[in-house]
Every structure is written in C-alpha cells, then in structure tokens.
Design goal:
The protein contains 7 helices and 2 strands. With 171 residues, it is mostly helical. It has one domain. The longest helix has 26 residues. The chain is globular and about 45 Å long.
C-alpha cells in the first residue's frame, strides 16, 4: 500500500471515529436503534489488505470506540470478528469474479445487489455481538435481536446516504 493510501485511510479512520463520538455516541432512536458508523471503516478497506493487518486495524478501531463508550472491549471484539469474516462473506456474494482487490469496496464498485447484502450481514453480525455481550446477564434476548436488526438498518441507511452524498462517482 502506498503512502498516499495510508494517509487517506488514516484520515477516513479519524473522520468516522470523530463522527461516531461527536454525533452518534448519545444518539438513538427510541433507545432501540443505534448507529455504529465507525464499522464502515473496517468494512470498506480494500480486500488486498493483509488479514493480520486488517484484524489489528479492526481491534484498534474497536478499542478506540470502547474508550469512549466505556464498554471494556466489546466493540473491539465485535470489530475483530467482523474483520475475520469480512473477506469470506464478500466472496460468498461475489464468487471468484474479476473484482480488483485493490479497489475500494463501495456502492459504485459493487452495485446495490451485492453491496447491500454484504454490508447488512457484516453490520448485523457486529451489532448482534455488541448487544448480546452488553445484555448477556439480563436475559433480554428478544431485545438483543430486534435492537440488532433496527441498528443494522439505521447504520445501513446512514452508510448508503453517505455513499450517495459524498462518494458518488462523477459521470
């Protein structure tokens, strides 16, 4: 990876963390839908990134969020799990096609038919792990399930809106 891409990804990381901490930290819809936009950073990294680096980056992004959410590693665990399954889930939808592993994962590059299921599964996995671990001893399993679904839909909506507003390809 060349230095300009590293700087671009570092700035993206800082942007999503600041967005998560300043806007989405105390924002929820009826206390059942929470937006975890920082996950987009891990989801959209290029497929060519080394798996060890990907999991390290996922851990660091999760632990930074854990510091502000006071969740003792729950976000880090969910991010590392997401990073572990990310490429497998991507190729589940795309197969072994001609997708350039160095190109960014985006709505414009994948198309809506692959982008939405890919991102939705990863977001649901991440959110389900967070809410399951937070509510483990409460026995609120129905709450965990529907909060995971609603948070996934909210985060997906914010990601797609951001893709259309800021990262749309010029024609």
């Amino acid at each position: 990876m060349n230095p300009s891409l590293i700087i671009k990804h570092l700035l993206s990381f800082i942007f999503v963390v600041v967005l998560q901490i300043t806007i989405f930290l105390h924002t929820s819809i009826f206390s059942v839908a929470y937006c975890y936009i920082y996950v987009a950073f891990v989801v959209f990294l290029p497929l060519s990134i080394n798996r060890s680096w990907l999991m390290t980056i996922a851990f660091l992004s999760g632990i930074v969020i854990d510091m502000f959410y006071n969740t003792l590693g729950i976000n880090a665990f969910a991010c590392v799990t997401l990073a572990f399954f990310r490429n497998k889930i991507f190729y589940l939808f795309l197969g072994s096609s001609d997708f350039d592993e160095n190109s960014p994962i985006s709505l414009a590059n994948l198309g809506i038919g692959i982008f939405i299921p890919y991102v939705t599964i990863l977001l649901f996995m991440h959110h389900f792990l967070i809410f399951l671990l937070v509510n483990w001893d409460n026995g609120k399993y129905f709450y965990v399930f529907y909060t995971s679904i609603l948070s996934t839909l909210l985060t997906l909506f914010v990601i797609i809106t951001g893709e259309y507003l800021f990262f749309r390809e010029k024609r």
